[in-house]
Amino acid sequence: MDTAFEIETRAVFDRYQRLQEDDEHIFSRLVSLIDEEYFGFDPGGFDGLNILDAGCGSNANASYAFLEKGAAKVTSLELGGDWMDCAARRLSKFGARSSLVGGSVLNLPFDDNSFDFVHCAGVLPHTADPRKGFDELARVTRAGGHLFLTIMGTGNGVLYRCINHLRELYASDAQFRQTVDNLDGRTAQEALDWVFTIKNGHERPLLHGEEDFLRSLFDDDLFVTLRDRFQAPTYHEFAFTEQQMRDWYRENGFDGVRRVSRYTKGFKNLRRFLAPMYLHYDHPLAVFWFGDGCIQMIAVKASESL
Ligand SMILES: C[S@@+](CC[C@H](N)C(=O)[O-])C[C@H]1O[C@@H](n2cnc3c(N)ncnc32)[C@H](O)[C@@H]1O
Q1: Could you identify the atom of ligand 1 that is nearest to the CA of residue 20?
Q2: Which of 1, 48, 92, 148 is deepest in the core (most CB within 10 A)?
């Protein structure tokens, strides 16, 4: 890692990805999100593939899923090397089929046309030069291979506008920053204890199970995701569009560009009510909240781009 910016980015993510690896429910929820259907592959579609998981995170959950579902070899790449102990806890059982590499998507340490499938989820918005990263990912995808990408889009969704505003507040307001940094499932439950103590001193609960339901909305899984929205040094202001991604693929010689989506199963917190909008990202309600949303795209590298 050469820049202070990359070191800070890595430190923010390492903290919460280690928590995710440590928690069996969160780790298995993340692993369950990766399957053949999501990418439009036939059952068994990962069998025998040589896969790159670029910006795999300290817990390398997608790498784990690819290996469990039949990939021949998965190379997991992250900035620096301090994450490898964490990833290895889950991946070492796959032996030589798993390889951990320190490096940057902005300068991938691989030959052209090296991988059958390149997977890069949520990484480019955190880099200094997302377009350069995309070109690097395209370079190492073999002709006839797939490049999959997740990037946070805009489109003026209300939620992303709020997050952009709150990110500014996080940077400028020490009190807000401290509150966010201390936010986890436990502090949320303590806050609710206080609310219910005062409220129940003045009136009886109105609905059966009202307290339990409210408590269920806020857990560690929610806050480890939320905190990165504020703490990561850059998110490029959630400024990407679907059309821009289609252009990047085309300019790198890719065909059959498809936007994909999925129902994000397994949330126990309030995100279970957002899951329908993650799946149907073009529904008016989803567009209102998320604009262009979480853009997930896949395409095939044409043979003539060799
Ligand atoms: C939102 S996390 C996504 C992690 C993982 N792909 C997942 O889907 O769970 C973004 C990751 O990108 C990594 N990252 C940021 N800049 C990078 C770069 N230049 N090269 C490689 N990884 C990078 C961060 O360290 C972080 O782990």
Answers
A1: 9
A2: 148
